[in-house]
Amino acid sequence: MERPLVSNEVTRLGPDAKFHHAGLRRGLTPSTLRKLDAIARLRVFPRDSVVVPQGGALEYVGNVVRGVLRMERLLADGRSQIVGLLVPSDMFGRVFSDRSDYSIEAATEVTLCCFERHAFESLVRSCPDLEHAVLLAVLDELDAAREWITLRAGATVAARLATYLLMLCRRWPHQTSELTGDQQRIIVNVPIARNDLALYLGTTVESISRAVQGFSRDGLISIRTPLRFEITDLPALIALSENEEFDAAALLTDLRAGCGGSF
Amino acid sequence: MERPLVSNEVTRLGPDAKFHHAGLRRGLTPSTLRKLDAIARLRVFPRDSVVVPQGGALEYVGNVVRGVLRMERLLADGRSQIVGLLVPSDMFGRVFSDRSDYSIEAATEVTLCCFERHAFESLVRSCPDLEHAVLLAVLDELDAAREWITLRAGATVAARLATYLLMLCRRWPHQTSELTGDQQRIIVNVPIARNDLALYLGTTVESISRAVQGFSRDGLISIRTPLRFEITDLPALIALSENEEFDAAALLTDLRAGCGGSF
DNA sequence: CGCGCGTTTGATAATTATCAAGTGCCGTGG
DNA sequence: CCACGGCACTTGATAATTATCAAACGCGCG
């Protein structure tokens, strides 16, 4: 499904204004910022292109400016699995390591802010404020990994899908979610297609489809387009996710509050 | 199963000599080391005690000296899930965050080297070399999380169990593994009981048991004790794990090579 | 000896993967 | 303008895997 992905909310961000390595820039001194900008290069990758090959040399690190990256691991039997998604402001690649044991690919068309790894690393070593920023970024990544783990905790496909939708709303409210006109309901824009969703949730395309249609039948969601759902019964969705950490009121107020997201 | 856990290889380490915050100490200046030691306190926790409660205040960070910690998340329906295990030299807790969304509990009796979080954080802020060490530690944690993800990639319980056993051998060769007298086969000491193993591999005690017994029937392993297996067909175990990244020869040579582990 | 705990084993039901076919949509090209 | 092919998604039937419930086993310990 090409079109909805390109025009998806997640990718419909302003021209780099806010998310241009926002995750890193925060808290840096002007001097460090200047040095950082000096080695930064914006690059655009088409959908499904490989940014970093699995097991390959890791030449670049950087952060996502626009679009979605998937970290994908290929298994011996040909199956593959998505071990994480990266959205704008997330860092990709790994500092202080020269190999990646998973490949990084473009789940949509992406714009990346790239730094040549060695140049970036020496900058990190010479600028303690940048090192601190990197530490925070890596801690975020760690949280994301733990969140992924939560995702897989769900026993059934339905539970995992519910958790995923709720995670989208909470972690990236203004990139993936909107409110209906009356501000009563949330509309979620799933940033990836069924195929990737299946790999991400550890199941198959068919099971994902059945779960989505099941939600629709049960009145939990209303399918606007295959990647755009209106959540019509938020409490039920939360109950289904088997996760106590979601709060309907908090999700809604977070969205109503202009731009109080996590960035 | 109390006894085997206490006398398990993983917990049978020398008195703090090597693993006393080894992960952090590496590369630190004597000055920083002195400051670090000044705020360090060794504490012992009995099995199943809660070191950090889920959702609770995060007062301490530190690293494991002896024993195994489990990071456990409780779900709304009462089930729980292990999101990671921490073995000697691993850091626990999270710097620069005051809540933990999972609890940290002792999977065996553990000895921890604790730092009061705020004191540790200010030390981190004032010592760039310590910050660098923390960054490396967090990167290791991130790798561990990704490895966990690999663990769950296996479609069947058998595949996940095989992957887990191989991961033990590769990541902590000298804490969990030994060689048979003729140096031909590996003996793995599983650091946790069936119950935790089930939570870790995302299945039930019964399925774990069936998988273990199945391995034994098929000649892949020989069960010495419930937590101590001799791997009798390493290549088959690797094939079963559906993971291309394990290498029988490498695992064996790694173990034969005195102490060339990852520490 | 009996109790508790961890493990094992068995039977059944629920969940999901797999295989197979069908639908709707869009862009291409006659 | 419409037929065609490709792609993403949906739907259906069947088989494999696993969770669940239930009970038994082995073993250390009081």
Automatic annotation (TrEMBL), chains A, B:
It comes from Cereibacter azotoformans. Residues 155-235 form the HTH crp-type domain. This is CRP/FNR family transcriptional regulator. InterPro entries: cNMP-bd_dom (IPR000595), cNMP-bd_dom_sf (IPR018490), Env_Response_Regulators (IPR050397), HTH_CRP (IPR012318), RmlC-like_jellyroll (IPR014710), Tscrpt_reg_HTH_Crp-type_CS (IPR018335), WH_DNA-bd_sf (IPR036390). It comes from the Bacteria. The keyword Transmembrane helix does not apply. Gene3D superfamilies: Jelly Rolls. GO terms for molecular function: DNA binding; DNA-binding transcription factor activity. One of its GO terms (cellular component) is cytosol. Residues 24-141 form the Cyclic nucleotide-binding domain. SUPFAM superfamilies: cAMP-binding domain-like, Winged helix' DNA-binding domain. The keyword Chloroplast does not apply.
